[in-house]
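User: Can you fold this complex?
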Amino acid sequence: MSDAAAIRVRDLVVARGHAGARGFVLRVPSLELSGGTVLAVLGHNGAGKSTLLETLAGLLTPQSGSVEARVGAPALVFQRPLLLRGSARWNVEVALWVRGESRAARRARADAALARFGVAALASQEATTLSGGEMRRVALARAFATEPSALLLDEPFDDLDATARERLVVDLRAALVDSHLAVALVTHELRHALALADRIAVLARGVLVQQGRRDDVLRRPVDPQVAGLVGMTNLLPGELVGRSPIGCWEVALAGGGRLFADAAERPPGRRIVAGVRPEHVKVDADGDDRGLVGSGRVVELLSDGALVTAWIEWERLRLRTHLLAGRGLGHELKIGDTVRIAIRPEDVHLMPAPIDTPP
Amino acid sequence: MRDVAEIALRTLAVSGSALAIALALGIPAGLGLGRRRFPGRGLLVATVNTGMGLPPVVVGLLVALLLWRSGPLGSLGWMYTPQAMVVAQVAIALPLVVGITLAAVGGLADDWHLQVRALGASGWRAAWLLMREIRPGLLAAVIAAAGGILSEVGAVAMVGGNLEGETRVLTTGILMYTQMGRFGDALALAAVLLGLTFVLAAALTVVQQQRRRS
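Assistant: Here's the predicted assembly.
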């Protein structure tokens, strides 16, 4: 994999702004982007995602460490697709013009790139009159036209309505599959990351806290903060009691109730946080279900039309679960209903408790 | 009538040279001042802004002091020559060009330069893209500078002297003929001056419209 790395980062330290209150330092010990792989960079606002991309693009000079890019510069697509005065075609051509390419070559490649993103018909339209979604497509076409060593995308789906976003995700994925590009995709929305990413890196306050294969990070976040970012939103503090007769780890939760975690989990200490993804909280359990933990009461329901989020009060805890809207439980469940809850041991992930939580 | 043509041609030569010099110096200065941050920049910007509103008579006085036989540049022997008038008109137009260019660069989004850098543009290509982007601002600078120096009378009268056949231009001619009560001659020169201003404005408008369409 190292040989295929389009960008390789070593011991990177990037300081931004002046030292002091507004100062910010990004630290990335090691990171690789490889061809044909999409790395999603997750983190809250101000975690350093854009700083990382701008450093990878060579726009920021690191204080120490190195960013090695294989032949060809990486192409960065900004959060706000910044188009220059002129036609959509010129906006794609300009990336080739700065490399001194001939007019004919520029035009051919620009038109091909615009077509790839479905905006060939807009080629001669003034860029500033395009819609947000169209501008983004032109910006992506511009990045692709340069045949970069890597593609760096900063919130590519921000500010788009749901339909436009979905279509862009589909088109972008098709373009990525064809191109075998190395891609870093910065987003604060997990769903976009999951739609495209093979790998996930998580930044928190300038520090790279976790990176790995997508499903590994989703299933085994290193701490509750990462867990929250990757959608493991049931975070239940508690204490490790010991091993159950069947070999599972038994956890006494601080809010009451007990959970069992799979034997394969390695408990990080006595005081832990048990993480459970909402889709792994089953609320129509019957007596035979593995992982039956007890009964709870529905206290809140929220539907976005496709998915219902239900909050279940169990002991002194609130569990969050997802149901499909409009059918089965997602249709029938009402506030105040009593449900039987099952959480299977293999779906419980143990993390160290943050130092600042009271025992 | 030969007079009028000769005065008009001289006006074009003097003001044209002044405009060319002011643009050649002012646009790069405005781009640089708009782009870079350095100590003393604030003072420089304030100086430019003051210069934009400088009364031409004051410019005339300063240029006269400079070019006077005993002045610092007296040895050039430019006083009461077309060169002196060009110097005065450059001094009037330069702050306008720098100031308007500067404002146009400042009007760009903060990340515009970052985007251009991300595209890999540097050197003359980056400067060209920048000028392309602020084209309406640059056109405004050209119009303001041309208008300012074509219609200006005080400074050129002071340093040119309105010498017949040497430094008489449209504005100083109008001034003189009006004072002499020769309104017919004054009106003839005024008509030419208005015509020049109109042709200039029309040419710039055409350029602006064409670029927008392409």
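Chain B has one domain: 4-213. Residues 31 and 38 of chain B are 14 Å apart (CA to CA).
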